[in-house]
Amino acid sequence: MIGVNPSTSLRAGLQVRPAVSADLQKIADLIFFEARIHRHLDWRTPLEWLGHSPYWVLEEQRRVVGALACPPDPDSISWIRLFAIAAHLSAPLAWSALWDAARRELAERGHVTAAAIVTQRWFESILVQSGFTLRQHIVLLEWSEQPTARASVPAGIFIRPMTPADLQTVVEVDAAAFEPLWHNSLEALSKAHSQALYASVAEDASGLVGYQLATKSPPGAHLARLAVRPEAQGRRIGSALVSDFISHVWGGRIARITVNTQQDNLASLALYQRLGFHRTGEEYPVYTYPLE
How far apart are CA 153 and CA 143, in angstroms? Predict the structure, then answer.
């Protein structure tokens, strides 16, 4: 663990220190009562990351007035999982103090990329000023009921519910299908599976070749993850998994089905649009900061 001295730009009475388990309620109060909160779209809540580093707090007279959590998971990707500050503080000042501590800790690990999906404009300007660069945009799509667009299961493919025994292979499929920024660890996918509304896998004679994992969202269901091994792509396996998911959840209390993907992932966009999804107009920028 590195030692951190309070920044000279911090006013008297403020200090930066590593978060400890005793801070849990203080950080919870900060998240609940304050308005300027950035939370990563995560399988775990910000409080569940307490005990993993980097996780730093800004303290004023024994009161936690700021917090920054960005533990890597997997080891090479460090998402900004929480940045929260009290209303009376300068956001750039609080970020500078907390990020300086977290950045130096991440730099000691080496070959880590910090990243953030921005949902609020005030946080985007802070990232830009800190040297984060725009990598791409995440776009949201919504399904319009089109039964004729359903895809049939390709010959030789069997789709079934995902089980915990599948998770190690699912991680391997995930790593093969996505670039490192979007990889999920076994722990993350295990957590996702435990929370899933519906998760399924596609198999052929060679074994597991694809999967989808969907979660419950306030208005309905969200297709959180879809992946097919590169060597199995082009066989309509992804389409079959999405159609199976829609068939499983549509109707009843599910009023809306959504999915998100990268704006520059043209193959993914084409697949979803072919199945009846349309873009909602919602976009979220993704910023990254490499630490060598």
Answer: 20
Q: How far apart are the first and last CA of the chain?
A: 18
* pTM given for the model: 0.91
Nearest 5°: phi and psi at 174?
-60, -45
**CB under 8 Å to 224, separation ≥6 — which residues?**
192, 196, 213, 214, 215
Q: What letter would DSSP give residue 6?
A: P
User: Per residue, what are the HEC states of 123-160?
Assistant: HHHHHHHCCCEEEEEEEEEEECCCHHHCCCCCCCCEEE
Question: Domain locations in the chain?
Answer: 14-131, 140-283
CATH, range 140-283: 3.40.630.30
> Quick one: which of 245, 188, 237 has its CA closest to 213?
245
Q: How many CB atoms lie within 10 A of CB 134?
A: 13
Task: Return the CATH class of domain 14-131.
Answer: alpha beta
Angle at which helices 237-249 and 266-274 pack, to 10 degrees? 50
d(CA 277, CA 27): 38
pLDDT in tens, the chain (292 residues): 344 444 445 666 799 999 999 999 999 999 999 999 999 989 999 999 999 999 999 999 889 999 999 999 998 999 999 999 999 999 999 999 999 999 999 999 888 999 999 999 999 999 999 999 999 999 999 997 765 456 688 889 999 999 999 999 999 999 999 999 999 999 999 999 999 999 999 999 999 999 999 999 877 899 999 999 999 999 999 999 999 999 888 866 777 899 999 999 999 999 999 999 999 999 999 999 999 7
User: What's the CA gap between 109 and 73, in Å, rounded?
Assistant: 13
